[in-house]
Amino acid sequence: MKDIITSKSSDYNFKIFFLFLLVTLANYYIYVGFAIKPYMIFLILFLIIQIGSIRFQRLHLFEVALLFFYIMYSYSGAFALYPESSLRIICGITLYIFCYFIMKSVIRNTRGLVLERAISDTGIFFNIASLTLYLVGLKNLGFVFEGDRIYSFGVLLDRDYPRLIGLLQDPNFFVFYNTVFYTYYLCNAGTLKNKLGLLLCIIANILSFSRGGLLVMVFILILYIVINNPIKKLKLLAGLAVSLSAALFIAIEFMHFDVFGILQSRVGDLSQDGGSGRLELWSRAWDYFTSHMIFGIGAFNFADYNFFQYRDNLEVHNTFLDILSESGLLGMTCFILFISLVLVQIFKSSIPKNNPYLLLTFLGLILQMAFLSVIINDMFFMFLAILTTYLHNEKNLSNEEKKNRISFSSLTSKKHKVKSYLQYKGSETTHEYSSNNG
Q1: Residue 151: strand pairing partners
Q2: What secondary structure letter does DSSP report for 366?
Q3: Strand, coil or helix: what is 349?
Q4: Is the pLDDT of residue 400 over 80?
């Protein structure tokens, strides 16, 4: 039986790696009012070819809560002033959920080791490809960092800052996509491969110059050290410090690229630009919420309201305020319930002990939502599919252990009964023999 499971997991290995890899190619899509991504096409083709092997697992409580949130969020579109925007996001939500269930079915038979290998390989490819595109973009710009909203391969010039976008479109989302890889390498830094992956993650994250993302990454690092033995992690921290220092030295001395100076400038700008205008946007979202507290202004309507009133077509850059303003207290209650149920199920399982990277990833993603608008996101759904697979496998293992204990207990009981019966028959024979010789 174990050989069959191992064989099946091996068969799924390349498919899972390829699937995870396609999820990271967020900058490549077909736009039809919403984006059709490469991994979506792969999943639909997989469904058509392997429809007989598709099996849907029983939903976890947090998945039910998530679906209920999307229903409430979509329902708010019925009261929207701009229904076409609501219809567009509803179509997107439907497509994402459909792909999520197929993704779960693709990886449902996979053991944790196979999933982890796919995460490790995908993370290294994602970061190497992103850093390569970044270097090509810098060379194409001639290392001249003047301009705003100028794209060059893996670089975005954002108010004279050369920010890494790599395989994505937005540097602010780069750390979000990299979170699962970062936490995995951090929690499994015992191998040279994962140490390399961690170093690549940190360098790529720094070059995104995303202040919110980097702040969350530092928090995750501190949390990881605190929940583990800090003394044992000194070697890891020392190695990272030396490696980063060497990378900074090469960038400054040979490429004349002052990464440290750019970081200092980005942090210094925080007091002047209000977090790239986020504080002003958050204030507007709060105003919309206070005037439409129950149902909100309607799904995906913030940008339209904002453009009509302030002539800038921007998102809230805060998922919680986004949900509050667009779907009111009904939507926000469902979303908070979803987050709470995920944490409850994680802590009820062995994940914090055996796979802490999943807990750290979820915390990292949720914290970054305070700086990003993430109503639907490829990487977030991929993480949930991975999490549900771990929980499903743990439940199956627990059920098997219970069955084995029951079988062993039943076998022991039968043996005890047989032994008692034999002892009884033996004593009866002895008694008869004794009486006959008397």
Answers
A1: 156
A2: H
A3: coil
A4: no
Cα dihedral 298/38/55/89 (nearest 10): 10
316 three-state secondary structure: coil
Determine contact, residues 42/24, Cβ cutoff 8 Å.
no
377 phi-psi bin (left φ>0, alpha ψ -120 to 50, beta other) = beta
What is the pLDDT at residue 396? 78
Is it the case that residue 7 has pLDDT exceeding 80?
A: no
Pick from 196, 375, 410, 396: nearest CA to 300: 375
Q: Are 126 and 24 in contact (CB under 8 A)?
A: yes
DSSP state of 195: H
Instruction: Determine contact, residues 204/174, Cβ cutoff 8 Å.
Output: yes
Tell me: pLDDT of 9 over 60.
Answer: no
Question: Which of 119, 99, 94 minimizes the C-alpha distance to 46?
Answer: 99
Q: What is the DSSP string of 164-196?
A: E-TTSS-HHHHHHHHHHHHHHHHHTTTSHHHHH
Does position 2 have pLDDT exceeding 50, yes or no? Answer: no
> pLDDT tens across 344-353, in order?
999 999 999 9
As given in the structure block, the two tokens for residue 152 are: 């060059």
Residue 247 token pair: 């990378």
Distances (CA, A) of 336 to 317, 331, 427: 18, 9, 69
pTM of full prediction above 0.85: yes
Q: Between 235 and 317, where is the model more confident? A: 317
User: What pLDDT does residue 412 have?
Assistant: 58
Residue 213: its H or E element = helix 211-227
End-to-end CA distance of the chain: 60
Amino acid 402: pLDDT: 61
For residue 319, pLDDT over 90 is answered with yes
What are the counts of helices (DSSP H) followed by strands (DSSP E) for the chain?
Answer: 16, 5
Alpha-carbon radius of gyration of the chain: 27
How far is Cα of residue 76 from the mean position of the Cα atoms in its chain?
26
Average pLDDT over residues 33-41: 88
What Å distances lie between residue 260 and 1, 159, 207, CA to CA? 55, 17, 10
Amino acid identity of residue 76, one-letter, is S
Q: Which two tokens stand for residue 116?
A: 């982890």
